[in-house]
Each structure stands twice: as C-alpha cells, then as structure tokens.
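lol ok so funny story. i was supposed to be doing the assay writeup but got distracted and ended up predicting the structure for this chain instead. priorities right. anyway since i did it might as well share w the group, maybe its usefull for someone
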Amino acid sequence: MINFSAIPLKSFMGRILRLFLHLIPSTMVVPILQGRLKGEKWIVGSSNHGCWIGSYEHEKQILFSEIVTEGAVVYDIGAHVGFYTLLASEIVGQRGKVIAFEPLPQNLHYLNEHLLLNKCDNVKVIETAVAEESGTAFFTEGISSSMGYLSLAGNIEVKKVALDELMLSGKIPPPEYLKIDVEGAEILVLSGAKSLLVRYHPVIFLATHGFEVHRQCCEFLSSIGYELQSINEKNIDETDEIIAFKNRELIKDKGGVKKDG
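and the output, tada:
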C-alpha cells in the first residue's frame, strides 16, 4: 500500500498532488483507493484527503487491519467521521460489533452518512464523549474537526459517559479492542474504564496528546498489567501512538510494532 500521506507538501510531487486535490468538490462521494477499505464510499470534504486516498495513518491502519479479528467487538472512542469505524466494521463482519463514540454534531453527520453509504449495519453510534464519569461536559472545537477536546472553557456542552458504567449496565457488550483518539482526554477514558480493562483486557490502540498525558497513560496501563509498544519507529517515551496488550500472542510478529528492549 502506497503511503501518499508521507509525500512532503513542498516537494514537486506534493505540490502537484495538492493542486489536483483542491479541484475535487468537497461534497463528492468517491471510492477509497487502497487498503482494507478499498472500494468503500467516502465524502471527500469530511476529513483530510488521506482517508479516501487510503493512506490515512498509514502504519496504524495497517496494524489495526492485521490485529483486529473477525467477529470481535471494537469500541471506536473518538470516532470523528468514521474512518476507523468503517475499517473495524469491515474487519469484524456480521458476527462482530462496532461501538462508535463521537460527541460533535458535524462529525456525527459525516459519520452517519458514511455508515449509510456503506450499509454498515454492525455499528452502533453513541453520541457522547467518553471520560472518567458519566454526565455532561464542555467541549472546545479545534482548528479542524478532528482536533476538538474536552475543556472547562469549551463552547459546546456535550454528554459524557464512563465506559465502566455503560458496559457494566449491559447497554453494550464488552470489547476485544479499543481505539482511543480523544485529543488529550486519554487518561480520563482509561480511568473510567479500569474495571473493564482489568476484567476483559482488550487490546488498545492509543493516540496520546502531550507529554504529561502520555506519561499518565503509560503509568496507568502498566499498573494494571498491560505491556506497551510503539506503533511507529519511535521508542515508547517519544511516540504518540501506542498499542497496549496483555496477550503477547495477539500481536506477535506484526511488522508495524516497534519491539522495545
């Protein structure tokens, strides 16, 4: 799979590609060009062009495709407009289930459109943020639709839920896999899911945002018995993309994971 997203924008090829991409109407529905989602439908203007080109988060999506299994339950926490929701839906198939969490109305619009376009009937969308406890919170919109975050100074009030409360109440099934990308609220998500993590120990694909949050997440996961590895070429202290697991066999010999130590 070609990683078009790695082409520098200031290079000749990058400038040509960028010029071409600017000509495509944002409302246009196109097929995803490569990867596990090849041929699935995507709205061009819903997110960055790497999604429909198929090179979005290149290393991470390849590893996700290799490790997630058919028939599994996947929580997509911070689903945004649905790239990983669609990817998980495709992988787990009709015997599996995807639970997608997203609080922002604009993102939910595109997320639901993508699910309709691709007839994903194994996905449940929960219109809420995920945090350490259930209730309401304020949300700050970022410079792009993927960069909003929970904040006391936020301009939007949203619902929030703790995974332990939601799952242990029987409203959703326990997961085998979590994908967490929540722009700095990662430790809140993990803290609100401690019982779930200890009891079911799902594999976690975790994006961290900021040194302190990264440190807190690593310490928390290590304290409950998780092993941590970098998804990219950086070591665990420098990366912002982690895979966390308790069963080493689940990720054995996966080329995208940096073997620390």
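The chain has one domain: 57-251. The chain has a mean pLDDT of 88.
back to the writeup now i swear
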